[in-house]
Amino acid sequence: MAEMYDKLKTIELRKKHVGPSCKVFFSHDPIKIVRAKGQYMYDENGERYLDCINNVAHVGHSHPDVVRAGAKQMELLNTNSRFLHDNLVQYAQRLQATLPDKLSVCYFVNSGSEANDLALRLAWQYTGHKDIITLDHAYHGHVSSLIAISPYKFHQLGEAEQDSGVMW
Ligand SMILES: Cc1ncc(COP(=O)(O)O)c(C=O)c1O
């Protein structure tokens, strides 16, 4: 593993190298997470946090099956989805087996932002309408199409709000 910096150095380097619009959580006292397992994340001092905020790890952090499958696949091949490969169609089949027959077509994406951007385009195409209802405080992702329909586009965030741990 790379050298572990103390938290102040990490903050200083983040300020230098990471764009300021990518806000850190709890910016008055940011948490430095160094590992995670199951539902828990741990900071550099071994302090344990119940993860109720990070929506990436659907089956828990560092799930051994996911880690094994990811490593095995990366050892073999990592391409985009425009080449033919059995894994892609087999995965689609497995997903479809859990869904109603009509839902038989899959689009594989890399993030929530991509999924929501695609959902928008599908809805526009299907309905022929462009109206959108967005709930206050909703977050749909970081791409331009989603920022355009997001509440924060309509609110001018003050410093206090920007500092409250909100990510955008
Ligand atoms: C409700 C919701 N939608 C969309 C997204 C965007 O997902 P991603 O960060 O994978 O692009 C997030 C991410 O936090 C989210 O919480």
From TrEMBL:
<comment type="similarity">
    <text>Belongs to the class-III pyridoxal-phosphate-dependent aminotransferase family.</text>
</comment>
<keyword id="KW-0496">Mitochondrion</keyword>
<dbReference type="InterPro" id="IPR015424">
    <property type="entry name" value="PyrdxlP-dep_Trfase"/>
</dbReference>
<protein>
    <recommendedName>
        <fullName>Ethanolamine-phosphate phospho-lyase</fullName>
        <ecNumber>4.2.3.2</ecNumber>
    </recommendedName>
</protein>
<dbReference type="GO" id="GO:0008483">
    <property type="term" value="F:transaminase activity"/>
</dbReference>
<keyword id="KW-0663">Pyridoxal phosphate</keyword>
<dbReference type="InterPro" id="IPR005814">
    <property type="entry name" value="Aminotrans_3"/>
</dbReference>
<dbReference type="InterPro" id="IPR015421">
    <property type="entry name" value="PyrdxlP-dep_Trfase_major"/>
</dbReference>
<dbReference type="GO" id="GO:0050459">
    <property type="term" value="F:ethanolamine-phosphate phospho-lyase activity"/>
</dbReference>
<comment type="function">
    <text>Catalyzes the pyridoxal-phosphate-dependent breakdown of phosphoethanolamine, converting it to ammonia, inorganic phosphate and acetaldehyde.</text>
</comment>
<dbReference type="Pfam" id="PF00202">
    <property type="entry name" value="Aminotran_3"/>
</dbReference>
<dbReference type="InterPro" id="IPR015422">
    <property type="entry name" value="PyrdxlP-dep_Trfase_small"/>
</dbReference>
<dbReference type="GO" id="GO:0005739">
    <property type="term" value="C:mitochondrion"/>
</dbReference>
<dbReference type="GO" id="GO:0030170">
    <property type="term" value="F:pyridoxal phosphate binding"/>
</dbReference>
